[in-house]
Amino acid sequence: MLNKYRAVSEQSCVGCQLTFIYVFICNLGVRWARQLRRGAAKALGPAAASRRHGNPGRPRAWLAAEVPPAPFSRRWQEGVGRRGPRVGGDARQSAPRCGPQRWGGSRGGRRVRVRAARERASASPRPPQGRWVARGSQGPGPRGGGGGARAAAAGGGLGAPAMSQAERKGGAALEVKFVPDEAVLRHIADDAGIKVRKDKTPLTVNVKRFVKKLDTLSDDEAQEFLEEKDYVAALGICAQDLMENGSSVGGSEVYSFQTPKRSNKMAELASELAQTPGQSVASDHSECPEKITKTPQSSKHSSSNKVQQKSKKNDFMSTTPYRLRKRLAAPDAYLESESEYSASCSEEEDDEETQKEVITVLSSLKTPAKAKVASTPPSRKKVTKKKDKMSNLVEEYFEAHSTSKVLTSDRTLQKLRKRRLNQQTLHDLLEKSPLAYAAEIEELNQQYESLFSKWMLQLHLGFNIVLYGLGSKHDLLEKFRISMLQDTVHLVVNGYFPSITVRSILNSITEEVLDHIGTFRSPLDQLEFIIKRFKEDSSLELYVLIHNLDSQMLRGERSQQILAQLSSLPSVYLIASIDHINAPLMWDQAKQSLYNWLWYETTTFSPYVEETSYENSLLVQQSGSLALSSLTHVLRSLTLNARGIFRLLAQYQLENKDNPSYPGLSFQDFYQQCREAFLVNSDLTLRAQLTEFRDHKLIRTKRGADGVEYLLIPVDDSTLTDFLEKEDEDV
Amino acid sequence: AHLSPCSIFWYEDRPEGQKTVKQMRQLHEEDLNKQLFDNLVSFLRRSHSEFQEKTTEWNCQMKSREIPTAALVLGVNVTDHDLTFRSLSEVLQNRVTPYVALLQAKDCPGIKNLMQKLLGQLMNCYVDVDSEEDDYVQTSQNRIRCSMTSLITWYESVTKKTDFETPSKKRTSSRHWQSPPVVVIFKDMESFTTKVLQDFIVISSQHIHELPLVLVFGIATSPMIIHGLLPHSVSSLLCIELFQSLSCKEHLSTIIDKVLLTTQFPLKLSEKVLQVLINIFLYHDFSVQNFIKGFQLCIVEHFYTQPLSVLCCHQEEVKKRINSLSHNQCENIRRLPSFRRYVENQPSEKQIALLTTDGFLKETVQQLLDDLNVYHENYFPVLRCLHVFTSSLPKYPLGKQIRELHCACLENRVWETEEYESFLQLARMLNKCDLVTMLQKCVEILVSSPGKEFDKTVEKLKEFLTQFQKLEGGCALSYVPLQIKLKLFYNGTNGYHFLWYILTLLELKESRRSKKLTKFEMLRFEVVDYIDSVVRNYLVPADHKTLHEIVYFNTASVLREHLNAAPRVALHTALNNPYCYLKSQALRSDGGSISNKAPDICIVYKLHLECGRLINLVDWLEVRKDASSASSCSHARFIRAVSELELLGFIKPSKQKTDHVARLTWGGC
């Protein structure tokens, strides 16, 4: 936030500028016109370039003029969260229909403010080098027909530096200033009529000031003041202090946008890694050399703003040329002109032909801006790049989501020489591989272990403790349990276990802690019972340790509600760990206040051994040992005939295992086979048998296209082979 | 410096902290809502007086078609409201009626569920009153069809029974009335579906003769919402009375005012800590409960981490505790920065004595702590006086709320700030009436304060007051009656300020014309200068005081870390820059890059950042293998890292393409 520049481009009022030029053309003479037209030829340059970059068939969308919708009622429109749907790609060439507009990527609190300035159109001709007097609009009120008056868009910020160049060389009407934060802040504060100190210690001061503002004003006003910057600043302290080693992380860094279509990037990186073992690999976006080549894009961005203005001017001219001329005569009438824009901005392209002259003239004004980008002096480049990065990220986000096609290679694990490992070998291999940085991890752990007694104290004071951070916290909690909870009643819940439910947690409390025998209609009843018991008996105390409170099974709204209510009991002490990045989203305010969390960061870097062992990773071959044992168990309890029937089906399925479109064994065929093997005597007995199988989920029936019933065993082939082998042994 | 593990018992030895928290809670839960609850109770009494008198007049009947309804405007905040409703229903059950039902929109998606909930709650509460009938109710609850008629029959049976069984029910009947009303509280009226509400109201209005029903709507937005939700035909069946509760900000102000800005509790919060707590309140939840929780954490942290907090106790006990200080603790005192500063300013022989003899040190510490106490005794009244001035000046130069002023004073010397400058300027423009009323208020505050040094100040202020009285006339604004000023003020702050400006301008013009200060102006300057001197004398920031570390809790970062944590940031830092945690030289790197020797998960994470929405596992694996040695062990480690990323929620298996995973952060699915 500190190194942020704010581009305040004082754009002169479009209409007046236009009229001014019009006068040149109409009244002043050929010389001016020729000069201007020369500029127009240049103007086509970047536009053509943009077409090269973009998809030839489909114009790139970000050239689409992004039009601010009618008047802006708020003074500061912030970027975050204000990303409207993208303006359609085809809308690009046409001038803007007040479509929804996207606000620039201001994740880091960057704010682009394009102030409209109005130029008094004087009747006397001006020299081409004359600077436009920039007049900042003041006051928060909605500006009438601000469509042209206030243009703030993603491109605005990018365009700003370029435009300043334009002005210098081409003598056009734009002035760009880089305004430091303080100045802008002062400006805001002045507007608001509140005294602002001039301190330059940014963060804390901002917070203070903001708080002050909040309270000084009545509630409604305070709402208006909830400027993003201050808000972020207020919260930003948190991030800053948290990382005492100076690695404060801004929002844009944490949630960096993906960079699409970079499949080769990975390979590149890999080769780099391979070539330079032990060396660090730069993979940060800002340092990536590729990024520099993207600079030209910015020129296109900046032009988007212009396209919009162009068309608007164009439009303006076409609809009211007479009045314009008339207005020229009355120099002070500029004020009304504003309101005319927004009204007319819906009709656009039809005038293109008739007003060609005007367009060329106008674009001549802009041309230098585009040409200049390449020759931006190095000092500026840095800034531009930074801004590029920002809005490129935004662009990339939308780009990546505009297509559903994903560009990745088609290689699959099947083709890979090395097959998938099974769970056991994986485990063994990992056992063997030494833990990296064991000493450092140990140090971290010791640091956390010194907190144990504090945790106990805080648990007793009615807080509950939640641990977060990278690395498994299983061992840490286990150590806590061993060292602190030896003589207490405690319950350990392995949340990562795939079949854990709230009900099982509640059951173990009622059955094992409260010694209650009996069932409950619903978990809520059970919870009520527990709450009642704990309230009655104040000597009851229970420590609950939950590993992975955010696991698949426990993250549901209802389970969290129940656990939260449980934890809110004064004599139930909960200490839990979370790992998922979005885990805090599980809790709304009500739940959070029930949980009464104290957060502790315990980054351990230890591998998640237990937690991931139940995951069905694509890379791990599923052993199917569980399926096999359940198969044999169920079948052992059946009659000999039934086992024979199942075996028939299994054999048939194995025979067809190479047939990828094997639908299953049809019921009629199966019956036939069973009869031949003297396993059943009637259609009905077979059906009864199948029902039994189905109840145990041993088979699945599927109806084919012809209405015939097909039978399948939903177990993979290797397991089935194992099963048959085992059966043969038994027999 | 840490305490023994059995600190739980040690903490319980320190009653001060718990007492304050308890007091805060009590203030929040009971006292602040007392007025509101009293009003509600009297409303309930009134609403069904007709029903009780069993009048049969037609007029009354017409009226009793309407359901008496209390609209309780509570403002937006869910968490604290639960508490409010709970205590409300307790109050009602104690004072008005045993039949109170609390309904939540979440539980009532349809009229049927609503009736079920309602009956369930009412009959349960009946069970509480009369436990003998336990079995009967248990069985009947299952049987009863949830309808209004069953409710009415239940009500009749219940009231009749209490009529007959007077001996056993004496206690209840003395507390409640003969036929107590049935109160149904809708906790979050806005979230209920319109249809459910309408149906319920229409149905129950049909039975209002038989069942004295009273509704209470909890409203978060504005009372207008009732008319927005209900059509006229339905809302005309309600006889609504409006009750406004204090907003949560007012709650907070009261709590800060009554607990933090007093001398009764020894522990104080430093400016930063208070700021953090207030920020969490204003930006995150508006929850007073959470504020109290944060305060509780401060107490725990202070007593736990500051070994000298033993001395943070009430005045009477200080002496005893100082005498029992061990040598180690004395050394701790000597190490305090503020104490070192103090020692440096002493003559050399005294310095030696302080640093060597424990006895002398203890005496001095006693003295210093007494000084600190006196400082606080003076600080708060003067702060309030200053607030009287600042809060009535336009634009509130030092903040509208007293807590802002408090923070400003704690932060650094308030008289060196620009705001203070502007305050003085504005104060020099005050008109006579305002100045006089302010001075009177100040006198009141100072007289009622426990500080002993204010006699002179009060005298001086009184003298000023008499001098003002002697002056005749006043400034232009004093011609405007106070009522009008107030009206202007409340109608819109701007109006008042505008007038204020105009009149001051007029006044300035006048004085410029005369070029000579009037008597009043002279006096005014004198008053402002005097106030300035008082402020400079008493409102010294606390960290300029010796031994402030004992009394002030200072580590705001701890508070932020534990109350307002950023788990994502922590995760991100650990993955991006493991050196932050693992202090190994091998991991040291410049910003943005990552060492090849970093933990597997960090490298895999970095690689995945380079990918688009979908990641081909094979490519990923290959890249990883190139990066490290291609052994089956590294293969296994890759597998583990990937499944760890899945656990952390960065990726998930995708069915879109074989052997692909989808990214879930920025650009996932």
TrEMBL record, chain A:
Domain Origin recognition complex subunit 2 winged-helix: 658-718
Keyword Oxidoreductase in record: no
Domain (Origin recognition complex subunit 2 RecA-like) ranges: 440-601
GO biological process, one term: DNA replication
Composition skew (Low complexity), residue ranges: 294-308
Keyword Nucleus recorded: yes
This protein's name: Origin recognition complex subunit 2
Protein's organism: Cairina moschata
UniProtKB/TrEMBL annotation, chain B:
Localization: Nucleus
Annotated keywords: DNA replication, DNA-binding, Nucleus, Phosphoprotein
Single GO MF annotation: DNA replication origin binding
UniProt domain Origin recognition complex subunit 3 N-terminal: residue ranges: 30-311
Main localization (coarse): nucleus
TM regions (residue ranges): none
Domain Origin recognition complex subunit 3 winged helix C-terminal: 568-623, 626-666
Name of the protein in question: Origin recognition complex subunit 3
Organism the protein comes from: Cairina moschata (Muscovy duck)
